[in-house]
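Escalation from tier 1.

The customer reports that the assembly of four entities below gives different structure tokens on two consecutive runs. Tier 1 could not reproduce it. I'm attaching the input and our single run for tier 2 to review.
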Amino acid sequence: MTLSCEAPVVAGMISRQALEEALGGWMQSWRVIAPVRQDGEVRFQPLDEPAAVAWDYANAKHSAKGVYLPQVERLLTYARTRDDLNQVKATDPPAGPTMLFGLRPCDARARLMVDQVMVDGVCRDRYYAARRDGTVVVGLACEHPRSTCFCGAFDSGPYDATGSDILLRSAGDMYLVDVVTERGAELAKDLALEPVDDEHSQRAEQAQAKAEGALRPMERLVGIEAALEGLWDDPLWQEISAKCLACGTCTYLCPTCHCFAVEDRALGDGGERVRAWDSCMYAGFTAHASGHNPRPDQASRWRQRVMHKFSYLPENVDAYGCVGCGRCVVSCPVNLDIRQVLARVWAAARTQAEESAL
Amino acid sequence: MLPDEIRATIGEWLATGEVDLFIGWEPGTVPLTATPAFVRRPDEVDRLIWDATCEHNLARFVRPYRDKTVGIMVKGCDARALIGLMQEGQLKRERLRIVGIGCDGVIDPRRVCERAGVESVEELDGAQLEGDVVVFGDLRIPVAEILFAGCETCNQRDPQVYDLRMGPEHDETSLADRYAHVEAMAALSEDERWERFTSEIAKCNLCYACRNACPFCYCNVCFAEQTNPQWLTPTAHDPDVSFFQIIRTFHLAGRCVACGACTRACPQGVDLRLMLDKLCADVAELYDYVAGEDPEAKPPLTTYRQDDYNDFVL
Amino acid sequence: MTDAHPHICHCAENAYLPRSMQILRVITETDDHEIKSFDLVPVDDGEPFRFTPGQFCELSIVGEGEAPFGIASAPVEESFVRFSIKRIGRVTTRLHSLTPGTVIGMRGPLGNGFPMDAFAGKNLVVIGGGFAFTTLRSLLVQILQGGDRDQFGQLQVVYGVREPGLFLYREDLAAWQARDDIQVVQTIDVPVDGWHGQVGFVPQAVQELAPSAKNTVAVICGPPVMIRFTLPVLLELGFGREAIYTSLENRMQCGVGKCGRCNVGSKYVCVDGPVFSMAELDELPPEY
Amino acid sequence: MSIAGESTNWEPKILAFLCNWCSYAGADLAGTSRIQYPPNVRVIRVPCSGRVNPLHIVSALRQGADGVLVSGCHPGDCHYLSGNLYARRRFALLQRYLTYLGIEPGRVQFSWVSASEGGRFAEVVTEVTEAVRALGPAKRLNVRAESIVAPMELS
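Tier 1 run:
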């Protein structure tokens, strides 16, 4: 059910210094996006010099979603004339390959899930597809998961290679280079790799064990879609959403949330039609012009958020709409923790099963 | 846990049905954060806490239950919000059971991170608040040094209205330095002020957390979400953001009680006090009015005087 | 799930690029001028616009936005594409101000449309209420004039509105009344002088018509209250829930299953619908 | 409306909200008395100056107005008794607030002009027009301003 990939092949190991040199070369042929620390905050930004990579970052507050699904993306520009109200010109999505360097495994997996909705779904989104097809990912395994990370609950973990073309695993002073895809193999050719000696491979294994051990224990979430089946009218939705401020921060920071609005903006004599991030947490998301709203309150919106991620997406694209990165837990102004919501879902399903068994 | 007699009274309120619901705080799942708690049964009262992490203005959550009797915990500033909502006919005093807390200020997680040298709060795994000191490994940071900016110059630490009183009494400091940052901004040149304002709101991505955290933003359809006419498009685009920020804050003129809930709720770290405190200062100067003090007073923009300030008119 | 058949995508390379369509005719359908029909023709000479009755398009006016509308013309009426639009919001108000000759944008055909193959060989009961008669007209005109009327059995139509001035497509209705291979019952809610036809709500009219359920499919579009009270009548008459189809109306923007807002349960109304059978809807949560 | 730019023959575009009972009538009187005043003003008639919402004023600046004038009855003359008195507090705060945030003070002006003050209306319009002309085209909130129309790398 969850996203997965073939077992990666260790191609060799390389020092950080040599990696930064390779990055210098890669920056000539790719627009390299990497985690960069700037005034106290790590953000995914175009890299201007290899040394700027924040190698030891926990995870960036904003996911890398802005790279493959920008917050505001111009779809069309238009000129406004009296009789022709469709004088439009499609904007060309940015050509030129992009390298997502230093992506954490959860973000790498998140991108694959969004791909399936935006490109492999019924219709093909040309703007998204252009960005995706030109992107290659060099993942960076997670040595220090945080207290809010729960990637383990999806049978994944801080060293999951899914979604990366190459996965770097730290082994003290060196990085082990796992090749995951053909594109990864191509990339690995640019690296001055040394054979992996036992000492480093052991160190990498220890680091992995330590990282996987650091994950807070949490009930496995694979299979939760069955638990959600009978909970449509359960009071849990009312209770958990009572404190929600409907600010949509969780959806903006979430690497898998991909819902958007299409808006026209007047600019001078013409304007532009843009796609911009939207959120199911807002009332206007589903409000009809007639005033009817199929989701009138925050409880129904929270139910949609959970059902979309943990029931509808598994049914439609065979992948959960959550990778356990914990960003929504960290940044929610009222600390509405989705892990607690999902625990309530399991509990409500169990009580329901017990009641129906009576 | 709350002090025993407070816990007992709240439990009694719930047991006898004097309140249908009690709104307070309980420990959060992220270090050094509390989370709003909605308690309905006496046995749940033990979940409730009060300390310097309880930063939300709970007055925001009362309106949906205004046909019931609601118990609520409020700091000095939050209590003013309750009074403001009574002035605007949104809440009735007899439908509220208020636990008023003398407050020494709440923690600003961003300042804790700076002091502890981490990027965000959840890396402070295991950090504890002991009394008025934050303990994280061998790091001990007094709460007084990591307060939310608004709390440092707060002159409304004690609740004006309550049924139960908790926490210390304060002799209120003068208003003098409360508007220091407003005067600093006003002293800048016109271009500098515009630069300061636009750079502050450049971080805003129109998620409306500030509006949704504010007890006084309760319009059914906010101007920001009207579609016919559509005043702004919800895409984070300079004129839309400045338009939203100017109009939304202006709607708080003469109503804002400077509780800071909006600034703390902002995921992008926009300092809304820079704007709202200017309105509070002007309202105090021109109409000698401070929001949330007297339940009977009429908010300044809902009344007038013949000899009101008129020099600005051509 | 019975014969769910999602939208087959032959969108242009750029699903968001509207095709330029010129307004050929504007017909004021109702006496209160609130609903107008717009007949559009492509400006470019690209390949003709092919669609199935029941599908919809996003009509686009730059600077105002886009909105979804059911296609009211039938595929056989190749010289124009008709949309009947009620003035209610920003885009529709602007549309109502337009005159023939103006060019607007159109994206489509979107959605799945009626399962014409499932209807073949069957009798049809078409029930419409208020202004939700657009795609039903497309269906009926295609059956009557599409050249294979004999593929379908008996055709019975019940069309109810509040008052006589609100009927859409009055020429078509008059023409159908004159035909013998289609039975049309027009009803209005309360008596109005000058109206000699039937009076009463749609559920009553269907009860009086009492169409036989044998080898018959029902299609019902209209305000939710009308559907809620007509459904039991059909079930009583023996219609199976998999033989009753309706078309849902949800807030839409992309129209191609991406922007995430028009779902009912796990189905996107814009690609998995808008046409659903009641059996399909029974498996989805009551969220529309 | 062309993109507001530094073109030489730029003429300030000023939006005036005139209260129907006094200022609008004053403007009428200025016209019937053949009093000359700059043509830069476009008038929106409102029942009372109290009807003008700060939303309208800031939205006007956003849509490209270089200046906004709101003119109503003198205090005490209001046809609705207190409309202008409520408005006075609202505008006093709004003008100080916009100035504080960095909008040039001349952009938004308020005046009281009675139905019999045709000359006074012309004076006010001239004063506002010259003030706005001195300030140049509005850039700060204007959605059509050069700085915003420039193609932005939106990702």
